[in-house]
């Protein structure tokens, strides 16, 4: 099975070896000293390749190399750095199929979604190129005569990026492409569940960096478990740590970075709901809910976990969804006939099974049964059936983010009640309302409506475009990545006041005469 769907050719094209160094300053790969991490595909259970984790002394080398690189990289004009990012976008277009395939094979999402993920990388490159000519601050009027005041943005330094398995390449690129045009250098710690994706990206970047004589250290890779992450979060030389993952992980990262008064950009768990109103267009609503709940096998931080349905539409939505679930094809995600691939690993399967058990114990009712699929096609043991359960919002299991395709459905009467349910969780990432009624839509988007970082109308909770700022409130961590003015977090702001007169008037009219 391991050479299915051209995966071996893709690995070759991306420069993935059987055993890879997991540590790189750019074109240089450090020696294989650290412990071995094996990457098994959840698709067929096969070993894809191995990497060596980064040791503590290699981490020191990496930080040294990126600190040195920062000294020259920040001097290059931003539009010139943008030109290099433009070339990365071009290179990604060439490698879209092979990288999309690797993402699908190492992570388990469908090939279509793998391609979509690489497209997000291309999109953020394009965005960053334009941004490289727009890193502008404001000019304001001084209260003092013959004075000028303005603010400008300078690069920060080393940006540490901790990414999760579910978006093994795109989320890194949102951070790296912005950081690079801003004049920062990056150290990327990929998830230990998808390390080969980081090796592939580094190889792709390198084609561009070496053509443009970019110094070693601008793009560094470290690999390993949480220990290597801890080195980064507690390191004063890393002014910004951008981390994507669970709330549990984010609390640790936030505390460690906060303890040294560094900056943390956190993009953590979601518990995203769609409100389906009595005025919903059900074709739109069902399709949106379906992709949101089962896409990426429920492993997006934006996945739809709860449906809050108007009582008048409840039975109809329930039945339509149940019949749509019956038509889902679960299987090898590289086979484009399938809709749903595997979970990332057997630990994830255990958590999924545990959640199903809890639903029953806590008083919920399973409507569309789950279970682990068996048979030759499913021999990795990671393929599961998407579940729908009736459950009230206050159940402990509903309050938690289970990274699996489990959808909770519940009823409401009045919109206020639906919004209160939607907001009644600790997470605050994404939300949506399905309605054709303008009043309902606007109420949902108002200050008294959704409390999430993302609030959509007639669109599911997942699948955001890169042009908007991406992130969420409450325990989702408050960070914003990718579009809009998210770039500002990668820079330090400086306010400059210049006196071009012959006197020195003090602000606030203070007199200080001799
Ligand atoms: C994530 O799951 O961490 O909005 C990122 C989406 C994607 C990104 C998800 N564009 O679903």
Walk me through the structure.
There is one protein chain. α3 (78-94) packs antiparallel against α5. The chain is α/β, with parallel strands linked by helices and 514 residues long. It has a 7-stranded mixed beta sheet with strand order 13-14-15-12-11-17-18, sandwiched between helices. β7, α7 and β8 (219-222) form a beta-alpha-beta unit. It has helices at residues 7-13, 56-73, 78-94, 96-107, 111-131, 170-182, 195-211, 226-233, 247-259, 282-294, 314-326, 346-361, 396-399, 415-423, 438-445; strands spanning 19-21, 36-40, 47-52, 139-140, 147-155, 158-162, 185-189, 219-222, 240-244, 263-267, 272-276, 304-310, 365-368, 387-390, 406-412, 427-428, 430-434, 454-457, 469-470, 473-474, 481-482, 491-499. The protein is 37% helix and 20% strand. The chain binds 2-aminohexanedioic acid. 2-aminohexanedioic acid (UN1) is lined by residues 120, 166-167, 171, 244, 300-302, 462-464.
In the CATH hierarchy, what is the superfamily of the largest domain?
Aldehyde Dehydrogenase, Chain A, domain 1
Shape: globular
Estimated structural class: alpha/beta
| Total strands | 22
The kinds of small molecule bound in this structure are:
2-aminohexanedioic acid
The radius of gyration computed from the alpha-carbon positions, rounded to a whole number of angstroms, is: 24 Å
Here the CATH topology of the largest domain equals Aldehyde Dehydrogenase, Chain A, domain 1
Query: Averaged pLDDT, please?
Result: 97
Our measurement of the CA-to-CA distance between the termini, rounded to an integer number of angstroms, reads 87 Å
Strand % is: 15-25%
Q: If classified by CATH, what would the architecture of the largest domain be? A: 3-Layer(aba) Sandwich
């Amino acid at each position: 099975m391991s050479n299915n769907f051209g995966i071996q050719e893709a690995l070759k094209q991306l420069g993935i070896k059987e055993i890879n160094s997991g540590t790189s300053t750019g074109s240089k790969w450090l020696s294989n000293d650290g412990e071995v991490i094996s990457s098994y595909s959840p698709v067929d259970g096969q070993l894809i390749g191995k990497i060596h984790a980064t040791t503590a002394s290699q981490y020191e080398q990496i930080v040294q190399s990126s600190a040195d690189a920062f000294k020259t990289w920040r001097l290059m004009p931003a539009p010139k750095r943008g030109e290099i990012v433009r070339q990365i976008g071009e290179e990604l277009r060439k490698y879209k199929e092979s990288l999309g395939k690797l993402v699908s094979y190492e992570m388990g999402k469908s090939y279509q979604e793998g391609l979509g993920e690489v497209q997000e990388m291309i999109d953020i490159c394009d965005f960053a190129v334009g941004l490289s000519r727009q890193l502008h601050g404001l000019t304001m009027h001084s209260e003092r005569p013959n004075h000028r005041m303005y603010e400008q943005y300078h690069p920060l330094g080393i940006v540490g990026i901790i990414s999760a398995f579910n978006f093994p390449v795109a989320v890194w690129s949102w951070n790296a492409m912005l950081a690079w045009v801003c004049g920062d250098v990056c150290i990327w710690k990929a998830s230990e569940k998808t390390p080969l994706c980081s090796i592939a990206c580094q190889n792709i970047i390198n084609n561009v960096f070496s053509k443009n004589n970019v110094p070693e250290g601008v793009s560094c890779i470290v690999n390993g478990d949480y220990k290597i992450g801890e080195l980064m979060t507690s390191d004063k030389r890393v002014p910004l740590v951008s981390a994507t993952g669970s709330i549990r992980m984010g609390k640790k990262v936030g505390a460690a970075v906060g303890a040294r008064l560094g900056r943390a950009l956190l993009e953590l768990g979601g518990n995203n709901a769609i409100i389906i109103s009595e005025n919903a267009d059900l074709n739109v609503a069902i399709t949106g809910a379906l992709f949101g709940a089962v896409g990426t096998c429920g492993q997006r931080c934006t996945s739809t976990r709860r449906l809050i349905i108007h009582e008048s539409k409840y039975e109809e939505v329930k039945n339509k969804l149940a019949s749509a679930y019956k038509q889902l094809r679960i299987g090898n995600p590289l086979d484009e006939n399938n809709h749903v691939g595997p979970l990332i690993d057997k630990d994830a399967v255990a958590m999924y099974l545990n959640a199903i058990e809890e639903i029953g114990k806590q008083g919920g009712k399973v409507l569309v049964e789950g279970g682990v699929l068996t048979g030759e096609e499913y021999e990795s043991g990671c393929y599961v059936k998407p579940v729908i359960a009736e459950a009230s919002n206050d159940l402990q299991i509903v309050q938690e983010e289970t990274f699996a395709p489990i959808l909770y459905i519940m009823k409401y009467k009045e919109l206020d009640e639906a919004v209160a349910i939607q907001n009644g969780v600790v997470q605050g990432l994404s939300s949506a309302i399905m309605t054709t009624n303008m009043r309902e839509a606007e109420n949902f988007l108002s200050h008294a409506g959704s409390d999430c970082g993302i609030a959509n109308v007639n669109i599911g909770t997942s699948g955001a475009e890169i042009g908007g700022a991406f992130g969420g409130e409450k325990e989702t961590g408050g960070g914003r990545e990718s579009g809009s003015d998210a770039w500002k977090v990668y820079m330090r702001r400086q306010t400059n006041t210049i006196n071009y007169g012959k006197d020195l008037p003090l602000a606030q009219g203070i007199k200080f005469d001799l």
